[in-house]
Design a protein that fits this description.
By secondary structure, this protein is mainly alpha-helical. The chain has one domain: Ribosomal Protein S7 (Orthogonal Bundle), CATH 1.10.455. The chain is built from six helices and two strands. Strands 1-2 form a two-stranded antiparallel ribbon. Helix 1 crosses helix 4, helix 4 crosses helix 5 and helix 4 crosses helix 6. The longest helix is centred in the N-terminal third of the chain and has 19 residues. It is globular.
């Protein structure tokens, strides 16, 4: 780390809810700079969530982010010619970023008609503690637990 740290870039809150997290999610969801398409997918998914669960869609989405965000992950570190998977705690910003990435990744892999439908299904599953993204979190925690013998190698 020879150079100075990159400045943190802040995004504008989204037009409908005024929430910065929504904009970050939409930016990760977006393909080829088509932000209006990404917004329509996200807002459509929230409407589907409200129809299916009879709860506010934004609240279900936030609960899903909370459930899917990992508290521990493993980082590879090379020590004495061998690579070790060292469990480290995840800070708040990274926790949310990883949760968003996993929700989008596993919703794209789902079966469904539209992206809004697949995204809504994954968000609902995540809020209940199910789905591919939640399973990824569980696998990450298991891997960190299996490697906790190497925790003394922390950075």
């Amino acid at each position: 780390m020879r150079k100075k740290k990159a400045p943190k870039r802040y995004v504008q809150p989204d037009p409908k809810f005024g929430d910065i997290m929504v904009t970050q999610f939409v930016n990760r969801l977006m393909y080829e700079g088509k932000k209006s398409v990404a917004y329509s997918i996200f807002y459509g998914a929230l409407e589907l969530i409200e129809e299916r669960t009879k709860e506010p869609g934004l609240d279900v989405w936030k609960k899903s982010l909370q459930n899917i965000g990992p508290s521990v992950e493993v980082k590879t570190r090379r020590i004495g010619g061998a690579n070790f998977q060292i469990p480290t705690e995840v800070k708040g910003d990274r926790k949310a970023a990883v949760a968003m990435k996993w929700i989008i990744q596993y919703s794209r892999e789902r079966n469904g008609k539209s992206m809004a439908d697949k995204l809504a299904s994954e968000i609902i599953a995540g809020s209940k503690g199910e789905g591919g993204a939640f399973k990824k979190k569980e696998d990450t925690h298991k891997m960190a637990d299996a490697n906790k013998a190497f925790a003394h190698f922390k950075f």
